[in-house]
């Protein structure tokens, strides 16, 4: 029998129960015991869902739960807690225990009375997902030991007491070390060994005793996640390390080794081959082309295969007939059925919980979708459909339903828009390029805009006050008329303009107060998008995002932003920037179609934005900003795949921007990541002005501008907007002076790092006044 297996279940619960629980605890509304009890209830419910779906004993994961993050769980479990957090406990005395220390690492800890102020550990994106993990920090002489509370063992026993045998999930030691970093002190003294794998000697015994304890508790196997096996790895160094780890751990318990989000590629032969494992999991949604190599490998190594055929990263119903054919092909190649599993492509952590709560969604489209709970049903149904005896009538009916839903989707008029198709079939080269090269445009823009040297601007959003959010809510609930809401927004915009004029900014913004979110706002105004009510996915800690769903050809039925931008532009003498979200960011922060390449969806988005850009220009807007903060995070995991992505991502941006005249100034904005490696792509976007996050005053970034001979306008953020701290004039001036070492003064713009919507007005006013003062000082110095 081919069996169904699950790698991980979303933690938040049907109604974001975990979020509510931990936030209530943080707010002091429930005590620690209530938190612990509440979490146990959530876990119990999730195990039950999986057992009820028909995932067999031993194939249901445990320890996939975390109060905050699974990497943070391992930091706590192996006692890698950095000293500064242990100090918190020491200073605060008995009131701080392990759980408080855990949350201190996750979100920082402040207690003025006790003089405690530690920021959170660094957080990074988990591979190419929108989930963020806490980065382990290692000292050069780092030691490891098991915490007194051994969470994986405790959760295994907890499930067992409920009558459910689980397979504990742990992050593998090499992935744990690889994703960590050296503590700063370790770095500075350069006492740290070159590679973090040097810590394996100290770490491996701890994993051994963890597996030993799991075995003693009755675990029959363990899932070890090593997702770095989908990355480019230095084989010479990593192969011996993997051999060592898995020969030792594989001797204790049978291992399901799981990597996901991409192909194993050369790592299959160079690293995985020869490892002492029982079963290998592969993501066949992301890397279907790898199937033959996997089968050959499995046969040769006498290893079982977990075929990740149900997409854990997207929300579409699987094509179960195709999945079944794939498994049958594998069976036909001589792999025994009892060594085969079917599974989601990765942990279902990245899927929303369940469709059950979607009462408002168009039922036709809802019928095309599967969230985590429904995906479990698919995995089980797939396994059942593969049983040697004739499937039961129920199974046959369910398979027929799956087929019908997929056929309905493929043939649906809802997903096709002939006008969009016609435009897509006629994407001439010149649509991707501005009429004239930058120097010509710059001249025309200078004549039109008459900006001073060191022009000042902001990134778009201004403080989203409680009042603004309340009004939006009232409008939604019908407690405020549209007219009253519009009047309110108009007044807010006026207020924003007055303030910016008074502070002396040069290129103004309307403040984006009418926007809930920079993707949702546009998604709601585009055809081809649908919104879920409850499709939340964990982003970090208790934070969840609800990505909109692109289900069909994207088009713009009417102008989306012109009304408020025009309104704003008409109320000032200064240039007013129009604000749009770029095509790549729209794609990246949505659930996207799986029936056409991402590139095509992005081009459709680009065409819709292009129309908006042109309409803004026609309405008299002379500066238009197209934000692309997510362009870097779309990068494929393997370097060899980068060029293809970067080429179409850049093309999509240019397609969205190139419809305007020379005198119209196109801005773009980038933040959240390190842009050094994709610098030539940023340059290739051919924007007239770019603003870019530079909060760590990264000299490397500035050097790149010099090295690549960047010639257009550039505003590397001169202050960090992520904290309420107001930077002084001197501090900002210093940063500008440092920039001027690398950048010509004619190119430099002065602006904050990113939008100001999360800030309050008081600090915004103080900081922007200082920024304008810096601009005046720079101008004086330049003309002196
Ligand atoms: C994450 S980038 C944000 C850009 C947007 N225009 C804003 O100012 O909020
Ligand atoms: Zn930003």
From TrEMBL:
Pathway stated in the Swiss-Prot or TrEMBL entry: Amino-acid biosynthesis; L-methionine biosynthesis via de novo pathway; L-methionine from L-homocysteine (MetE route): step 1/1
Gene Ontology biological process:
methionine biosynthetic process; methylation
Q: Which domain of life is it from?
A: Eukaryota
Residues that coordinate or bind L-homocysteine: 459-461, 627
Q: Does the keyword Cytoplasm apply?
A: no
How does the cofactor attach, per the note? Answer: Binds 2 Zn(2+) ions per subunit.
- Where, by residue number, does the polypeptide cross the bilayer? none
Q: Which residues bind Zn(2+)?
A: 669, 671, 693, 754
GO molecular function list: 5-methyltetrahydropteroyltriglutamate-homocysteine S-methyltransferase activity; zinc ion binding
Cofactor list: Zn(2+)
Q: Which UniProt keywords apply?
A: Amino-acid biosynthesis, Metal-binding, Methionine biosynthesis, Methyltransferase, Transferase, Zinc
Cobalamin-independent methionine synthase MetE C-terminal/archaeal domain sequence ranges: 454-776
Pfam name, any one: Meth_synt_2
Enzyme kind, highest EC tier: transferase
The cross-references to InterPro entries, in alphabetical order and at most eight, read: Cbl-indep_Met_Synth_N, Cobalamin-indep_Met_synthase, Met_Synth_C/arc, UROD/MetE-like_sf
Please tell me where 5-methyltetrahydropteroyltri-L-glutamate binds in this chain.
Answer: 19, 130, 543-544, 589
Stored SUPFAM superfamilies? UROD/MetE-like (SSF51726)
**Coiled-coil segments, which residues?**
none
- Domain Cobalamin-independent methionine synthase MetE N-terminal: start-end pairs: 6-331
| Entry-linked NCBIfam families | met_syn_B12ind (TIGR01371), PRK05222.1 (NF003556)
Q: What does this protein do?
A: Catalyzes the transfer of a methyl group from 5-methyltetrahydrofolate to homocysteine resulting in methionine formation.
Check the record and name the PANTHER family matching this protein.
5-METHYLTETRAHYDROPTEROYLTRIGLUTAMATE--HOMOCYSTEINE METHYLTRANSFERASE (PTHR30519)
Family per similarity comment: Belongs to the vitamin-B12 independent methionine synthase family.
Q: What is this protein called?
A: 5-methyltetrahydropteroyltriglutamate--homocysteine S-methyltransferase
Instruction: Give the source species.
Output: Caulochytrium protostelioides
List the top taxonomic levels of the source. Eukaryota, Fungi, Fungi incertae sedis, Chytridiomycota, Chytridiomycota incertae sedis
